[in-house]
Amino acid sequence: MTIDFIINQLNLQPHPEGGFYKEVYRSTDVITREFLPLIFSGSRSFSTSIYFLIKADSFSAFHKIKSDETWHFYFGHALEIIEIDEFGNLIKTMVGSNLIAGEVFQYTVKKNTWFASRVLKGGDFSLVGCSVSPGFDFIDFEMASRDHLYAEFPQHKTIINELTRL
Prior knowledge:
Blueprint: H1 3-9, E1 13-14, E2 20-26, E3 30-31, E4 44-45, E5 48-55, E6 60-64, E7 68-76, E8 79-84, E9 90-95, E10 106-109, E11 114-119, E12 125-133, E13 142-143, H2 146-152, H3 157-162
Antiparallel strand pairs: 1-2, 2-5, 3-4, 5-12, 6-11, 6-13, 7-10, 7-12, 8-9, 8-11
């Protein structure tokens, strides 16, 4: 099974942060604005989920969203998720199927955390799923600028340079 076959079979489209995706679920039930934290500008679905595929020659650039996002491993090689938490700590988590190597089948990135991802060295691609609650809306998505992250986290300049595009 080739990467192109998977992209075509799942009808994946390019994602602004890098890689390919397709929304596969969006709850028809919504949480109205009045019952959400103030960071949300309007109503949101209870939850959403997508397929996400990243190739080894690309990466998912540093970004953050206003909801928790749980990553689920499906197929291919392990995915390295790199976070910079609110205290400036660099956290690396491998989402994959090799439990002996310390990989995990699923992992949750907490809301408002800068994070990026890439295929673990030596792999060709990673196919994962992402579940978001309250549901994802592109209005809640913020792509990091390299200069902003340099100013906020100068100790991580190398990884910031590797995983940003602007």
